[in-house]
Amino acid sequence: MKTSLRIAAGFLVLLLAAPSASALMKPGQQFLPFSLKNIDDKEYTVKMEDGRLTLIVSEIVAGKSQVRRTHPAAVLIDFWATWCVPCRAAMPYMQKLHEKYKPGEDQEQGGLRLFGIALDERGSKVVRPFYAKLQITYPMLADATAGPGSDGILRTAQDMKKPYDAATIPVVYLIDATGTIVHVHQGFKPEHIVELEAAVKKCLAGGKG
Q1: Contact at 8 Å (CB) between 182 and 195?
Q2: Of 12, 34, 121, 207, whose CB has the highest number of CB atoms within 10 Å?
Q3: Structural domains for the chain
């Protein structure tokens, strides 16, 4: 009897410790807007403006502030950390998606914008040297941005971690032009990328297909 109780207690501990897939934000939910700094100090803000998914990129050039607004067809966010082995395994696949579907340099509408969200607590101090060793060109957002606390925008990677349920990584979310989450997966398997690319193609086609 005591042995049975110990086994049952052990299963209960494992159950409580295991990540809950039901806690992930689901397709059909609205994404939560965010604003973070890339490792090159550019600020990337993703929010809804006039009912459209909007990317705002702010940077200082020659001492002057420059701001650019674009409206991507989709935004993909990949939560990762430098110590996460499956995260690193997924990165070459993410890079291929970035290269294949990114908008042109002067393109103001359409295309896929892909962002790595680094959960390392030291931010760019850790991520920057790691990034320099990789064959990766999509932005790695690692540091906080300043702003009013009342605007509903998440401004640190740690602030994003709980609502996006990124305690177990990698976690990937694809957001369409209406701000709706259309694909989610946790962990990494090559078949995840097949499903993800199909969802990206659908977003780029305006949700058709």
Answers
A1: no
A2: 34
A3: 25-204 (3.40.30.10)
3-class DSSP assignment, residue 51: coil
pLDDT tens figures, 177-204: 999 999 999 999 989 999 999 999 999 9
Partnered with residue 45 across adjacent β-strands are 35, 56
Count, residues in the chain: 209
Identify which of 67, 66, 37 has the alpha carbon closest to the alpha carbon of residue 155: 37
Measuring CA to CA, how many Å separate 81 from each of 11, 93, 111, 190?
29, 16, 26, 19
Strands lying side by side in the sheet with 181-186 = 64-70, 52-61, 43-49, 34-38, 140-144, 112-118, 74-80, 171-176, 181-186
In 64-179, alpha helices (H) = 85-101, 124-132, 157-161
Question: What six digits make up the tokens of 116?
Answer: 């790595």
DSSP 31: P
Three-point CA angle 22, 79, 94, nearest 5°: 110
Residue 20 scores a pLDDT above 80: no
Contact 181, 26 (CB under 8 A): yes
How confident is the model over 151-158, as a mean pLDDT?
A: 95
Helix (H) or strand (E) holding 8: helix 2-17
What number is the average pLDDT over the span 108-115?
97
Beta bridge partners of 67: 58
Query: How many whole angstroms separate alpha carbon 20 and alpha carbon 40?
Result: 35
